[in-house]
Amino acid sequence: MNVAQWLLTLASLGLVLLGLVLVAAFMIYGERRILALLQDRLGPNRAGPFGLLQPVADILKLISKENFVPPFADRMVYTIAPVIVPLTVLLSFAVVPVSEDWWLADLNIALLYVLALSSLRVYGLILGGWSSNSKYPLLGGLRSAAQMISYELPMGLALVGVVMLSGSFSLKEIVAAQTLPFIVLQPLGFIIFLVCGIAETNRLPFDLPEAENELAAGYNTEYGGIQFAFFYLGEYLGILLIAALVTLLFLGGWHGPWLPGVVWFALKTLALIFLFFWLRTSLPRLRYDQLMDFGWKVMLPAALLNLLMTAGLGLFWMEN
Amino acid sequence: MYEFIFYLSSAIAVVAAGAILVVRHPVHAALYLIVSLLALALLFFLLGAPLLAALQVMLYAGAIMVLFLFMMMVMNLRTERNLPLLLPGNWGGISLLALLLWLVLLLLLSRSSLDEAGSITVIEPKEVGSALFGPYLVVVEAAAILLLAALVAALYLSRKGKR
Question: How confident is the model over A195-232, as pLDDT tens digits?
Fold first, then answer.
């Protein structure tokens, strides 16, 4: 590759990064408006028309705040932890194709790559909680460690069904294999993946690591300013990633009649993001022991059953 | 470019592994171990084993080390009371181990021809799968039985109530 190609690659990467951060910022605005709508309130509507400039105001506020490290915190780890969360999610987007022609990288282990990065994301929460060196963040960090390990397993197992049907780890090829969306062939896998996805992104009803009204704010209690913004950015980018993955894996990605592929992809992803916000207003938070019981006694057996059924039916279908 | 990334990640792996020996806090040591594991995963990827690289990150860095950190956080370790792994008295044993490892490496390198080491063939996940459930099926089953036994033992040891 020559210099011009390198510059072009870097420029397109920068553009994608900027786009993703902006989408995350507007997701926060969208969530606040939708929550307000569902709770019969107005929500942020002061800055700009319909409050559309609210994300800009929020970002400016968070950037201009003082970057404070508590004296009792472990300095190095405390500073690194918030960066890990958005970094791992942004790296995962490298293998997410948006339509047939719009994609950055087509790795043939794309799905494993995404899973690997999502299992690294938890370090942001664990280390943030531990390095703050105070009680609530530590409890939040412990909870997120336990939660991630419990829900990663069924999530991975639910994906094996999809991989069996499409015969590939590449997200592009998985979408190409879906003449019929996999939600029809893998209804159980779809539900398991979606629920585990909600748990992985720490959203209600699985937001135990931050649980405002019992742990103050969990792992990010001590954080403020731009470091807090990094955690927040990571959370919303995580929702975007899970929504995009569910679209690609189970809802047929960019397949759909009449409209161009990108529009279908965006519509499906936005519908799933709306579901995330809707769940937040509708469901109460689980208790910690309920969360663990649900993960190990319901999700894991269901995922194994799904795997067994897919493999059995596939074998039967191939023999005949 | 390829060689640059290769040497850079090798250097990171070695330096991070060395740092494990000298840092005082166990959690910091665990973090350096994670960095070392990630650099190793990159090396696996560059040497043509993408599946191994992904599994290295998912299982070692993403699951086992999380459990390590979980335990360390529960134990509430303080920096002042901890000593680094590498104390003056331990030099002898560590040097002996390093020497043995060096001899093993020398033996391995002398047995493989140079052009074999230079060329890289990418091993796809599918090939790994058919090798594991083809010629190596017995080994996979043995590992499964071993893990099941470990699981049952852990359940037995952690049971509540009467002994």
Answer: 998 888 887 777 777 766 777 777 777 787 788 888 88
- Chain A hits for B49, CB-CB cut-off 8 Å, are none
B73 to A141: CB separation less than 8 angstroms, yes or no: yes
Considering only the beta carbons, identify the residue of A76, A112, A127 that sits closest to B54.
A112
Contact B58/A112, CB-based, under 8 Å?
A: yes
What tokens were used for B125? 């996940």
For residue B160, give every residue at least 6 positions away whose Cβ sits within 8 Å of its Cβ, in sequence order, or none.
none
Question: Which of B69, B72, B133, B148 to substitute to test the interface with A, most A CBs within 10 Å?
Answer: B69
| A26-43 confidence digits (pLDDT tens) | 888 888 888 888 888 887
Residue that wins the pLDDT comparison between B38 and B113 = B38
Which residues of A fall below an 8 Å CB-CB distance to B?
Answer: 74, 76-77, 107-109, 112-113, 115-117, 119-120, 122-123, 126-127, 129-130, 138, 141-142, 145-146, 148-149, 152, 156, 169
Residues, chain A, total? Answer: 320
Identify which of A130, A149, A169 has the shortest CB distance to residue B67. A149
pLDDT band at A261 (very low <50, low <70, confident <90, very high): confident
Please write the tens of the pLDDT for every residue from A85-136.
Answer: 889 999 888 888 887 777 777 778 888 889 889 888 888 888 888 888 788 8
Tell me, yes or no, if B133 comes closer than 8 A to chain A by beta carbon. no
Helices (H), chain B: 2-22, 26-46, 50-55, 65-75, 91-111, 114-118, 125-132, 137-157
pLDDT tier at B115, thresholds 50, 70, 90: low
Domain spanning B2-157: CATH 1.20.120.1200:
yes
> A138 contacts in B (CB within 8 Å)?
73
The CA distance from A110 to A112, in Å, is: 6
Please check the confidence at residue B139 and state whether its pLDDT lies above 90.
Answer: yes
Task: Considering only the beta carbons, identify the residue of B25, B50, B70 that sits closest to A142.
Answer: B70
Domain boundaries, chain B: 2-157
- Give the residue ranges of DSSP H helices in chain A: 3-38, 54-64, 75-92, 110-131, 135-166, 171-176, 182-185, 187-200, 212-215, 225-250, 261-282, 288-293, 300-319
Residue A300, classified by CB atoms within 10 Å of its CB into exposed (0-12), middle (13-18) or buried (19+), is: middle
